Amino acid sequence: MRFLKIVLLISILVGCKTKEESKEEQPTKQPNILFLAVDDLRPEIGAYGSEIAVTPNLDKFAADGLLFNNAYCQEPICSPSRASLMTGARPETINVIENFTYFREANPDIITLAQHFKNNGYETVHTGKIYHKQAWSDKGKSWSREPAYDKMTIKKSKVPGGYALKENQEFSKKATAEVIAKYGKNAPRNGLGKGPAYEKADVEDTFYEDGYNAELAIATMKDMLEKSPNKPFFLGMGMKKPHLNWMAPAKYWDLYNPDDIKLATLTEAPENGATMGLHPSFELRARYGIPKKGPINDDMARTLKHAYLACVSYIDAQIGKMINALDEAGLRDNTIIIIWSDHGFHLGDMGIWCKATNYEIATRVPLMIWTPDMLKETRGTKSNALVELVDMYPTLCELAGIEKPAHLEGYSFAPLLEDPNQAWKKAAFSQFPTPALREWAANPLSQGMRETYFGPLIEEVEGKIQKQMGDKWDRDLFENNLMGYAMRTENYRFIVWKDYTKKDSEPLFYELYDHQTDPGETKNIADDNPELVNQLLEQFNKGWKGNLPQ
Questions:
Q1: Distance (Å, whole) CA 82 – CA 95
Q2: How far is CA 507 from the centre of its chain?
Q3: Residue ranges of the Sulfatase N-terminal domain (predicted)?
C-alpha cells in the first residue's frame, strides 16, 4: 500500500512540472509481479516450524517478508483451487469442483488474475503449472506471450513417466500396459497405471521438469527485459513438486538422514468424525509398489516422507534461483513477490496420504509475500489473520494500483502488510465433495474404478458410511451431491455436510474440532456441544461476505 501511495505522489509531482521538464523524465513503472506457485506443499517449511525440512531459500524469504500462519485454500485439489484463486471466485460460483471441468468452458468470459494484469498493460507469461492441465496455457486470454523457449540451451527431458532411471521407466510402461490389458483403455483416465511413487537419481536439477521450468522462467524474465524494458511484467513460475510422483535429484535426498525423519503421530481417523470425510488414499495406492489396501508400514512411510521432503528441498532451490536472478537483474526494488501452495497434504496424518479432505492438514497452505516498501517492523513477521487463496487476486490489484473487477469474491489482505496483527476475517471457507466416494480428481467413483483392484476397498468404505449414516444413506446423494463445507474460525473447524445442489437442505452431519485443545482434530465434539454448533451454523450461513472485517 505504501508503494502505491508513493507511486501516486510521484505522479502528482510530475504532473505539476512544466511540459519541458516532464518530457525529460520517465513515467513511474508499475511494480512487476513474481507469482511463485507450488503444488501439494503443506507448511512443511522451516519458517513454518518444520523441525526437519531443509528450506533455506523459503526461510530467507520469510525472514524479510510477511508469512501468513492461517492461510487456507478454497478446495484441496488442484483444478478447483487454482481455478478459484486465478479467477478470484469460489469453486461453486465458477462450477469447478473437480479436476475434469475446464474453468473456461464453464466461465468463458471470466477475467483471470493474469488476464486482468495483461489488460492493464502488463506483459504476462508463465512457466510450469499455474492452472491445471487443460487450462495450463489459457492462450489468448491470460498470457500475452510465450516463454522464451528459443533462449534455452538446455533440452527438456522426454522420458517415460518423467523418470531418470531405466528400471523406473520400465515399471511405468509395464504398469500402464497391465492396467489397459486388464481393465480397458479408459482405465488410465483414472490414473491407475502409474509407475513408482518416488525416485532418487544422480541427475542435474534441470533433468526434472521443475528445474527446467525454473531456468525457463529466468530466461523469459531476461527476454522481457531485453525486448520490453519499460513494460511491467506478471511472471508466473509453477513448481509441480512435491506433487506425486516424488522425483528429485539425489543431492536433495542426501540432505536428510532417514533416522531423523519422524512419522505422523496422529494416525487414526477423528473420533466420531464423518466416515465419508476421509478417503482410502487412492492417489498414492495407484502407484507401482504401494499396497492397494491396508496400512502403509513404517519403513515405507519413512521412505515416502523422505521422498516428499527431498522434493520440498528441490523446489526450495528452484525458487531461490529465480529470486536470485531477479536480484541480479536489478529488479527487486520494483517487484512484488508472492509464494503460495494450492493446498495441503496428508503424510499419514489421520491414517491417510495425499490431499482431498476438509481437515486442517489438507486445507491449510503456506502463503508468503514480499513488497519493496514493506515497513521495517513488518519484515520477517508472521500474521495470524485468517486469509484465503481467493484473496490474492484483489490483493495484487490493490498493491499494483489496478482497479478490481466486480466479480471478485476475495478480500484484499494488503492492509496486513502494514499491520499484520489487526482484526481481520472471522472465518475462512473450504470445501470438498465426499472424499471417501470420489476418485482423487474429485469426480464421483466410476464403474471402472469399482471393477479394478480398488473394488473391495470401495465396498469396505461404503459399509462404514452406511453403518454411521443409517437411514440417511442414499447412494446418489453421497456419491454425486454431498459436499463437506469447512469453516475455520480462530478457535474452531466446523464442517457441515449437505446436498450442495439444494442450498436450503438440512445438513446431514456436523463435525466440530476445538483448535484450542485439539489442534490435531482428533475428536469431533459436535454432539456434545449443540449450542456451539447452532452458533457456528448461524455464522456459517452468513457465508464469506458475512465474515469479512468490519
A1: 13
A2: 28
A3: 31-402
The single residue of 116, 126, 132, 306 carrying the catalytic annotation is 132
The model's pLDDT over 36-84, given as tens digits with 9 standing for 90+, comes to 999 999 999 999 999 999 999 999 999 999 999 999 999 999 999 999 9
> Based on the number of CB atoms within 10 Å of its own CB, is 364 exposed (0-12), middle (13-18) or buried (19 or more)?
buried
383 DSSP β-pair partners: 68
| Local structure of 326: helix, strand or coil | helix
Query: DSSP alpha helices (H): ranges in 329-419?
Result: 360-363, 392-400
Read off the C-alpha cell for 176.
500402464
Q: 437, 479 in Cβ contact below 8 A? A: yes
pLDDT tens column, 79-126: 999 999 999 999 999 999 999 999 999 999 999 999 999 999 999 999
**Is the pTM above the cut of 0.85?**
yes
Active site residue 78: yes
Q: How far is CA 280 from CA 208, 313, 427, in A?
A: 29, 28, 29
- Looking at residue 136, what DSSP letter applies? S
The bridge status of strand 346-347 relative to strand 428-433 is unpaired
- Catalytic, 16? Answer no
Q: β-strands 335-341, 32-38: how paired?
A: parallel
Q: How far apart are CA 178 and CA 480, in angstroms?
A: 30
Strands (DSSP E) contained in 42-108 are 66-72
Q: Which of 73, 78, 354, 397 is catalytic?
A: 78
Residue 389: all three cell numbers together = 487463496
Which CATH code is given to the segment(s) 32-546? 3.40.720.10
- For the chain, give every domain's residue range: 32-546
Residue 196 DSSP label: B
Backbone angles phi, psi at 430, to 5 degrees: -135, 170
Among candidate residues 544, 516, 96, the one with its CA nearest the CA of residue 342: 96
Pair type for strands 428-433 and 482-488: antiparallel
Distance in angstroms (rounded) separating the CA atoms of residues 362 and 495: 14
